[in-house]
Amino acid sequence: MNKERKVAKKKGKEKEEKVKQEKASPKPEESKKEAAPQQEPKGEFIPIYFMGKKYMVPATVTIMKAIEYAGYRFIRGCGCRGGICGACGTVYRLPGSYKINVGLACQTVIEPDMYLTQIPFFPANKARYDIDEEKADISTILDKYPEIARCVSCNTCTKACPQDLEVMDYVQAALQGNIERAAKLSFECIMCGLCASRCPAEIVQYNIGILCRRLYSKHMMKKAQHLSDRLKEIDEGKFDGDMEKMKKMGTEELEKAYAERDIEPV
Amino acid sequence: MYTPELLELIKKVEATRPERIKKAQKGEHFPRMSYEEGGEVLHRFHPDYKKGSKRKLGLGPNEGDLVPNEVADILEARSIIDPGSIDLDNIDYDVDVLVIGAGGAGDAAALTAGEMGAKVLVVTKLRHGDSNTMMAEGGIQAASKPQDSPARHYLDTMGGGHFTNDPDLLEALTMDAPGAIAFLEDLGLMLDKDEDGTLRTLHGGGTSRKRMHSAGDMSGAEIMRTLRDEVRNRPEIEVVEFSPAIELLLDDKGRCAGAILKNLETEQLLVVRAKTTIIATGGFGRLHIQGFPTTNHYGATADGLVLAYRAGCGLRYMDASQFHPTGVIFPEQNVGLLITEKVRGAGTQLVNIDGEQFVYPLEPRDVESSAIIRECFERKNGIETPTGRLGVWLDSPMIEILQGEGTIQRDFPAKHRQFMRHDIDISKLPMLIFPTLHYQNGGVKINPDSETEIPNLYAAGETTGGIHGRNRLMGNSLLDIIVFGRRAGKNSAARSREVKPGKLSLEHARKYNKELEKKGLGDGLTSPMILPDYAGKIA
Ligand code: SF4
Ligand code: SF4
Ligand code: FES
Prior knowledge:
heterodimer; A: alpha+beta; Ubiquitin-like (UB roll); 5-stranded mixed β-sheet; B: Flavocytochrome C3, Chain A, domain 1; 5-stranded antiparallel β-sheet; 23 strands
């Protein structure tokens, strides 16, 4: 989990590293306005509770930035910082509510008195398969993830999904052998695992999702004929002559060819 | 949501929109810059040319070369570890191929090496797949269509790179490109296709043919999660997470023979002996060159670059950084996030505070970025955000009018969602953007076999330099990681059959430290950085 930097767990080396980093991101006065990566926090501060401890943090930031502001340096639980990698699953409660909420730390803006923690890791089953050999139908799904049949249609996964996907629907589609529908409904899954962390039937939805997408793409979508034609042409050396010519051109000749090249209409 | 002041300014964009749409529909566009004009704008406004932002490297193979200060800081630094403090005879992992980095290039390399029968260890400092690959939205270039050819792809890429690309590497990239798409199709990647299987392709900045292949606006994520799924299917590949390589190991003959890992959680050091090693650690966005925000993921701190340089690998074009023209500057929570070039490919224009166009939307990235900086700072036609950032409008609602209602939701679902979280519907309202640090154009020198200058050491992906010259075109990095990842995997696996590593040594790190001392460089600092430190700040 994230380490508290302020706690003296780190060694002297880390201090050196820290010094270097400060040096490594100089903030020249003139470039500050156009490009400063770190904005001075302004305005209101609000309390949040991170793993039970209270911290006062700037009001409008995301959970991820609030945790950092509080003095933590992430090891786990932080990846793209942009809502696409699924590394930053978070569980929280709000005052006056019995509900457990989940979300992405890098995308969720904090609220006063939020009580939260990150989920650094959540164990999940991943079946091994040879995608070339598997059939794009229900038999594969039941063979790889038999627990799917335990789905009680409670819709908890859908409610948990930070991508607003119809998670239960894609699980149900897979269970009915509708691989195409499962593939399409799960396309935007970022594999954050929040659905699986809440599922009473212990299903790993996102692994079923990717299996369906791969089965669908590999065995149900048509192959690109023009692509295999092109590979053949390359193999036969059709482009070797042009490429040789291109590679022999000096900069001036290349510049000319570049300026004169025709452009396919948008 | 936008502030009332910004909403007021958006009215000006809306006022000019019908006229701009009419012209676009007639095929009339804001004129492209000539090559000379582009060059001039670059020299005057591109951050690469900013005075005082670079210095000469004080030691190593590229001594005397100008590089950004932030890069010099990590290269002119001591090894994190005390070379004398580790027992190198105590080997924790003994493998054929060690892959450092578990992004797209690393995984493509691991899969390919595994297929050749090698025993592969993949190590990464974050989770498997946490990488810039995951974040690439736009697409992947390949001359897969009859009206296109690898030579055209070559020429477009050369032009984008200002004719500084390495011809042999570029030949490899463009000739292998259709094969890379086929590799992905074969893995079961959900590529955008028509009913009959024809791959859908679009333009990107600087392309002369529509050769951008995609998987929605999550092309990189789809590539990454599919590669990761496949790696996890393979028994011959072991993945160790949260354990970065912090120094390479050479053997007594000066050949690469593995690496030292650090388990970030237990802080234990681990010795890997490998017959061949592949560096696939990605780029340097999180060094925040010149203080710019970045589109890059948390781990983009150029660790592999440091390791390779200390081991004696030459670098090239380290002075060329890529700024993506369209990084988000509002809302503040999303600052630095990328808006894919595909948005411009679909017909979106850039307009200033008066709602006027000032640049052709699909210039090569560096020219486009420079033109935006000029519009904001010289011509003073930028729009100011509440936190004092300056930017211009990216008029996304045009897409809905040009391509039909619902196009944004269908083709850019991830972006639509990211903004909806902040109550901004980008199918109705434009976005505020400014260039953001995006890509390390230069890097470790390799040849078309993905070999570095150190025997038995390979490199692939953003950590390498030369393929893209001084400026990369959109869609060539997803391509690069697949093409050179596979080349590195194939060649390292083949080579591993003939190699018997000698006695492991950290002598090179010791020498490097001494040299620093002798020259009075580095101030006692250490590298690689491994993770940026935003503790106590708002990053
Ligand atoms: S949470 Fe589990 S049991 Fe409930 S609907 Fe989703 S998959 Fe089914
Ligand atoms: S389906 Fe599950 S794993 Fe995928 S994004 Fe939604 S909650 Fe996350
Ligand atoms: S850090 Fe990647 S989704 Fe939050």
